Here is the input.
Amino acid sequence: MGGLLEGKRLLITGIITDQSIAFAAAKLAQEQGAKVVLTGFGRLSLVERIAKRLPQEAPVIELDVTNKEHLDGLADKVREHVDGLDGVLHSIAFAPPSCLGGDFLTAPWEDVATAVHVSTFSFKSLAVACLPLMGTGGSIVGLDFDATRAYPVYDWMGVAKAGLESTSRYLARELGPRGIRVNLVAAGPLRTMAAKSIPGFAVFEDTWAKSAPLGWDLYDQEAAGKACCALMSDWFPATTGEIVHVDGGYHAIGGTS
Ligand SMILES: NC(=O)c1ccc[n+]([C@@H]2O[C@H](COP(=O)([O-])OP(=O)(O)OC[C@H]3O[C@@H](n4cnc5c(N)ncnc54)[C@H](O)[C@@H]3O)[C@@H](O)[C@H]2O)c1
Here is the structure.
């Protein structure tokens, strides 16, 4: 029997280390039969080195999601490796230090604008850049951190994620008539490079592990990666505008323990 993603052509963004959620997703996708093309931001040689740790080495295309030239040229660069795309994973976020860590009231607009540009608007930019390669049955997936509540230290990234959730619903509305699904995976806290750069992020970690009905493993990127793969497969054919929580059930539980 073929894998869940047999024959699928996927574009996966957001690998910077082998702890990246995108790395787990790419590895699982290849194991499930997908052909994977990666994009990398900035330190391309580093991303290429990490890509060699995947079951099959995957090509890496340079993509800064705030760079118009990169976005405009993306479809042609992807076509050098695959003749179309069945799935796209957006696993990208960034906020300047002023936006995280407890100074919510003082972060300047320029920094907030950067956070929203890279972490929110880019979901739309990436979707539009990939559209020429996608057809009916296509799936676009993004990585979320549940934005229904305000958390300590997450600050403007929380606002950016709330925007991402809304962007996802609008994209679902726009792209549904073309047969393209758009969904998010809301992961619990994971010890990746992005998370480690948030001062005080550890405050989530203890409460999450204690409160999540299923418990929570800060080092298990595979659970989120599996959900991404499932959403990019044919097994969610009628699901769009959805947020799938991969957080041990934390979002569903009230109280502190
Ligand atoms: N780690 C967590 O606790 C957690 C929880 C829920 C959701 N998420 C989300 O998962 C996604 C992936 O993060 P991660 O935790 O795997 O961390 P990570 O640091 O491994 O990945 C973040 C990626 O964003 C990329 N990036 C930053 N600016 C970019 C730009 N301008 N253009 C293109 N790429 C850019 C980085 O190169 C990096 O590959 C993010 O959206 C993050 O918010 C993370």
